[in-house]
Amino acid sequence: MRPMNRAALPADVEAVLGQFYTCEFTTVNRQGQPMTWPAVPYYDPARGTIVCAVSIAFATKAYNARRHPQVSLLFSDPTGSHLSDPPAVLVQGQAQVAEVLDYTPDIIGLFKTVARRQPDSRRFTSNPIIRRLFVWYLFQRLSLTVTPERILVWPNGDFDRSPTQIELAGVV
Amino acid sequence: MWSDKLAAFIGDYPSAVLSWVDSSGYPLSVRCRVGLEDGTQIIALPNLPLIAGAWRGKACLLFHMHDERLEGLRQMVLKGELVAAEAGAVQFKVSEFVTANGRPDTDRMPHANAPVHMLQFYRLGRSKARAYLAKRGAAWPPIPFEEIARAVDRD
């Protein structure tokens, strides 16, 4: 996967990608209807990619992204991030979908991110009985790895302003 | 289809995320304020962000919230379209309410403190997962639970 030029990203944008607990992940279904659901993102600053995962039981987001790989992730809810007056950030990019069969550093990073942001989830993942019961939700998952192509930034999260734009398509 | 039960939750959210698809095929989203117009089953979008100003057509509205421990999760999506209204106003015409919990009466995600709801979610998810695996045609490979747990604990 093509790495993104990190130097292109301002520090406040990097902070949002790395610290917001959730993003609003949009895929496009067969009817051309956008569908947006919250997701926990793991931002890998070295590769410049963002990884999310969905349970095989609720895989519509992954099916949509396989058919229509252009997706977007809006970072607009700073709850829990402890960032002061952060911008809102929209990432548009190409998604690659895969079954989580190998526990790569990105996937482990996602598990760590969830455990850190949602500490009560450790009760589920650490209990052998519960994790067997909910294996379809916690571990049998599809990953969506997004390579950003364009980023829009609204300073101070003010959507009444015109966003600034960062082009990343073709940047190596 | 309109849902009075789910529409009643809209007022709990200070804002919603509006999404549409631009001419390049990429989705776009903005956060905006919404208002329910009594008796009309139409959602008003006052002060629509500039970037969404010209769009009319298929769109969706996401309502979601969580607390600082990523608990208290609530979420629902309204499918529909942006339509022009009188005096240059823009409205969201709803075609369907969708919840992530599979229920028609609440936007709250399952939680261990609500065991009946959790059991319903478990049965729904397990059934759908079995259908996925049947279509896959092969069992899911063994999962290294302890290896994952150790990696998470090292954090």
Task: Give the topology, please.
The complex is a heterodimer of chains A (172) and B (155).
Chain A lengths: L10 H9 L3 E6 L5 E6 L2 E3 L4 E7 L4 H8 L2 E6 L12 E12 L5 H13 L4 H4 L2 H6 L1 H4 L2 E14 L9 E4 L5
Antiparallel strand pairs in A: 1-2, 1-5, 3-4, 4-7, 5-6, 6-7, 7-8
Chain B lengths: L3 H4 L8 E6 L5 E6 L2 E3 L4 E3 L12 E9 L8 E11 L5 E10 L15 H22 L8 H9 L2
Antiparallel strand pairs in B: 1-2, 1-5, 3-4, 4-7, 5-6, 6-7
Q: Which CATH C-level class of chain A is it?
A: Mainly Beta
Distance between the termini of chain A: 11 Å
Low-pLDDT runs of 5+ residues of chain A are none
Please report the number of helical segments of chain A: 6
Total separate domains of chain B: 2
Order of strands across the main sheet of chain B: 2-1-5-6-7-4-3
For the biggest sheet of chain A, the summary is: 8 strands, antiparallel
The rounded distance between the terminal residues' Cα atoms of chain B is 46 Å
CATH architecture of chain A: Roll
SSE string of chain A, helix = H, strand = E? Answer: HEEEEHEEHHHHEE
Strands of chain A, total number: 8
Regarding quaternary structure, what we see is heterodimer
State the largest interface: A-B, 66 and 55 residues
Give your account of this protein's structure.
The complex is a heterodimer of chains A (172) and B (155). In chain A, strands 1, 2, 3, 4, 5, 6, 7 and 8 form an 8-stranded antiparallel sheet that branches. Chain A is an alpha+beta fold and 172 residues long. Chain A has a single domain, classed as Pnp Oxidase, Chain A. Chain A is built from 6 helices and 8 strands, in the order αββββαββααααββ. The N and C termini of chain A lie close together (11 Å). Chain B is 23% helix and 31% strand. Chain B has 155 residues and is of the alpha+beta class. Chain B is elongated. Chain B has a 7-stranded antiparallel sheet, with no helix packed on it.
